Amino acid sequence: MSRKESNESGIIIPKRDAVRPVSIVDEMKHSFIEYAMSVITSRALPDVRDGLKPVHRRILYAMHDMGLTAGARFRKSAAIVGEVLGKYHPHGDISVYDAMVTVTQPFSYRYPLILGQGNFGSIDGDSQAAMRYTEAKMSRISGELLADLDKETVEFGPNYDSTRTEPLVLPASVPNLLLNGVLGIAVGMATNIPPHNLGEVIDATITLIDNPKATNEDLLEHVQGPDFPLGGIVYNKKDIAQAYTTGRGSVVARGNADIEETKAGKYQIIITSLPYRVIRSNLIIKIADLVQEKKLKGIRDIRDESTDDTRIVIELKSDANPQRTLNYIYKHTELESNFGYNMTALVDGVPQLLSLKEILHNFILHRKEVVRRRTEFELKKAEARAHILEGLSKALDHIDEVISVIKKSKDTGAAKENLMQKFKFSELQALAILDMRLQKLAGLERKKVEDELHEKKKLIAYLQDLLKHEKKMLFIIVEELKKIKETYGDERRTKVAARAVQSISDEDLIPDKESVLVFTSGGYVKRSDPDEYRKQGRGGIGVIDMNTKEEDVITNVLTTSTLSDLLFFTDKGKAYSIKMYDIPEMKRSARGNSINNFIALSSDEKVTSILAMPKEMKKLEELSLVILTKHGLIKKVAADSFKNVRRNGLIAINLKDGDELLAAGFVMKKDNIILVTRNGQSIRFAESDVRQMGRGAGGVRAIKLGKNDNVVGADIVRQEYQHPLLLVISDLGYGKKTLLSEYKVQHRGGSGILTSKVTNKIGYICAARVIAPGETELITISEKSQIIRVDLSTISKLGRATQGVRIMKLREGDKVASIALL
User: pTM score > 0.85 for this model?
Assistant: First the structure.
């Protein structure tokens, strides 16, 4: 009975019992799995053996069929795409042409498989011309992928409409999966393998052939890492090793960038290579956008001077820090990017995550199979030819009888049968004899047949022996690989840095330069460039530094790096910490910002000392921090006690009523400490005279003070100083340098010795500093904000009991507030 019936319009409608209910969940699951497997195996993932996706394999095979070898003439890309579509690839022409373009681009493939003529796109992101305008043919290295294809070396399968066959894999004499890498996104999985240097990959393959037990670490002695087409730098051999061992990982890649100084004394950043798959024009646009948005400062101009090679020139302003600018570009653009390894490929049609060793192992298995099949093909061909030659040789030995049999035969068929019957020839031999020309009867021609037969027998014996011995087959594979390396090997383009690239923090983008910190009694702070203070001769009147309020005076001046951690010590014995670069840089005449914008001081608390923390942790562990008070007490505490200071501060010293924290400094073992008082007394003692205490302790006596006297200056005499000098400044602008050898080392707690005569002419002592090696200039600031910068060499070297020379000419009613050494 028919299961279908027609309605009046002739449309066939299935009967009700012909409809089969199906679960939509099961149908969706089944259909999606089929679709996913189709994408995985037939489109997105490469075969581990030849490193090609089906579309690339079909393009190369179609070009092989068309005779478009490296020595042939170019053909229109449209003709090639048409050939691929018509015979092998059941997808759109755009997908085929895009795939063809990719393997042609020298910036996408380390060893391009196709040579292009015309516009095949650019590293600037320009798209390729239409296929009707471009031409192509295979490159020489593609010939190595297709070599011996006609010798039954690989399996063939039906094409999409079963009208012809196509190779399921190419013979591939080279491990193309590693040479050119691959990027593919399938359903539920992806692959991302970078390109590599041919010589390194072949050396690793030979190593694995010679020693099948070689580890990934052994192979990585040859394969240094990825070798991108346009160079660049990859970092951290540890990360590289992990990626090749596990098949997954991430490696930092950077473009090459150099800092060059022009003849005019200005700096340029020259970018000569980019990370893999970075579009050059996009990088330039990104840098320009950062400049326009004022996020990237210090750039005057950007030029693209690229030709075949990349050359991007970034001109910097005169005040820009080149390295910091480059660090910012690295952090905020694709000039530094991560390459994520995902070495997934098809092994026997199944996707697998592979290590370097597993990829090479599968390639070696493939080559063994190819060489075995090639050997069997050549053996079969040699045996067939030897069989013919044996018949010809036997016929020539009995030529008169052979001719007689042929002459007596009725026709060719009869002649063949008669020869086979009388001389026991095979059908092939009989046909070959009947096709033999009379010239074979000549002596030399007969000799050629015998020589050829001899050679074929030797070849047959060699090929049979080869098939019996795997080691000999592997030797052939190694020799072929060596020949390919000799032919196509080239220098590595990508540099490999053993160290890990340092992650760029916000601090790395701050220029590491010397800055002057100025602090006032009113709590205003600013940071300035030392060049703001032009050098003058001593005895001058100086220039205005900052617009302070009438009742405000400058109390602290410090020179240190913009990257330093600053410790602010207050009269209440507390310590606070901020970064130097957190304080905005201002002009010399600027007033500054309130310190309360940066640290949380109480209403009756004021900063009395500022100290820059050393950057190196090791150095910090070797240091102690000494704290001195106005009443002559001293305390020593471990310096690392202040490496992590809370925003609301830490207790630095417990003070007695009426005392104030005056100064702080870092000391090392065998250093000396020197104190100077308002009335010109001083004392020098060893740091070991002060035992180390807890952070909350009070302290011990450093100097015994006279009536109406207090400590105004203190500094550290480093053990490594050669012939150190003490600089003493009075509040009326006089100063001198004195050799510290005139100050004998005493025990702490004494009254000390005279360091300067205090008179009405020079006033009281207001500051004292030990001149450290490398300090060559003095900045002196008055209470009314006059400032002068002079060479230390212009200040006289005088004895302890002298008054000194004029350093700064003060206006009436003004006094020196503080000093700083540069």
Answer: no
Looking at residue 656, what DSSP letter applies? P
CATH architecture of 383-488: Orthogonal Bundle (1.10)
Give CA–CA dist 552/555, Å, rounded: 9
Q: How far apart are CA 100 and CA 83, in angstroms?
A: 13
| Domain segments of the chain as ranges | 26-193, 256-334, 383-488, 512-821
Q: Which of 140-149, 537-546, 714-723, 767-776 comes out lowest in average pLDDT? A: 537-546
pLDDT band at 10; cut points 50, 70, 90: low
How much is the average pLDDT of 572-598? 83
Place of tokens 């209440």: 572
CA gap 736, 778 in Å, rounded: 12
Nearest C-alpha neighbor of 116 from the set 103, 126, 127: 103
Q: Which class for 697: exposed (0-12), middle (13-18), buried (19 or more C-beta within 10 A)? A: middle
Nearest to 795, CA basis, from 750, 734, 745 = 734
CA distance 138 to 663: 78
CB 251 within 8 A of CB 338: yes
**Looking at domain 256-334, does it have CATH number 3.40.50.920?**
no
Nearest to 685 by CA among 698, 707, 662, 704: 704
pLDDT in tens, 717-757: 988 888 899 999 999 999 999 999 999 999 999 999 999 88
Please state the separation of Cα 134 from the chain's center in Å. 36
Out of 61, 97, 109, 133, which one is annotated catalytic?
A: 133
Bridge partners for 625 per DSSP: 637, 666
**Residue type, position 553, single letter:** V
C-alpha 814: how far from its chain's center?
A: 58
Q: What is the pLDDT of residue 817?
A: 85
Per the annotation, the verdict on 133 as an active-site residue is yes
pLDDT per position as a tens digit, 376-389? 999 999 999 898 88
Give the CATH number of domain 26-193: 3.90.199.10
Q: Which residues have a Cβ under 8 Å from the Cβ of 115 and sit 6 or more positions away?
A: 70, 74, 104, 136, 137, 138, 139
Q: Catalogue the E-assigned strands of 307-384.
A: 312-316, 336-342, 344-347, 350-353
The pLDDT value given to residue 764: 93
CB neighbourhood size of 76 (10 A): 16
Angle between helices 399-408 and 412-423 (to 10 degrees): 140
Residue 653: closest CA among 684, 669, 630: 630
CATH 2.120.10.90 fits 512-821, yes or no: yes
Would you state the structure tokens that stand for residue 41, as one six-digit string?
Answer: 């195996």
Give the distance from CA 437 to its chain's centroid: 71
How many H-runs (helices) and E-runs (strands) does the chain carry? 18, 43
Q: Is the pLDDT of residue 184 over 80?
A: yes
551: confidence class by pLDDT, cuts 50, 70, 90? very low
